[in-house]
Design a protein that fits this description.
about 150 residues, alpha/beta, Rossmann fold, 4-stranded parallel beta sheet, 5 helices, about 40% helix, about 20% strand, globular
Length: about 150
């Protein structure tokens, strides 16, 4: 099963993330397209760029879209695109979107690229959330106690 990956982000985010991931892991080992949406890009231009990225991944069985910010233009365009996958000729017919792109999420996806889509989505969200750690708030590691207790 081959998975295609689209990073659909605000300008400057997707390319930088892929450059860092490549520096850490080497070549991605999977088909990856990056679409960055600058603030000056129209909605129609964003849709067109995203469609071109999906077309470039036509040989894959499943598609994972990682976006940087849920509810923003890249996320909305990605959701729109996924809804139309099943009616597009040779495009992958199954896809998923995960918002909140961070480097641990991307590295997890690239490392686990051979998994079925549902597992890959789970691994992406795990990597993304497990990569968020807060430390150094006066008394030490905030992850070791209940920061919401009001103490």
């Amino acid at each position: 099963m081959t998975t295609g990956l689209v990073l659909l982000t605000h300008e400057g985010v997707g390319v930088a993330m892929m450059e860092i991931a490549a520096a850490i892991l080497g070549q991605p080992g999977m088909a990856v397209q990056v679409v960055e949406v600058p603030h000056s890009m129209s909605l129609e231009q964003a849709r067109s760029a995203t469609a071109a990225a999906v077309d470039a991944l036509a040989g894959v069985d499943q598609l994972l879209v990682l976006v940087d910010l849920y509810g923003a233009t890249p996320s909305n365009v990605g959701m729109e695109m996924l809804q139309g996958l099943s009616v597009r000729g040779d495009a992958p017919h199954v896809g998923a979107l995960v918002a909140g792109l961070n480097l641990p999420m991307l590295l997890r996806v690239l490392n686990d690229r051979e998994r079925p889509l549902a597992e890959l989505v789970e691994r992406a969200t795990q990597g993304g959330t497990q990569g968020i750690v807060a430390q150094g708030v006066n008394s030490g590691d905030v992850n070791s106690g209940d920061v919401n207790s009001g103490d």
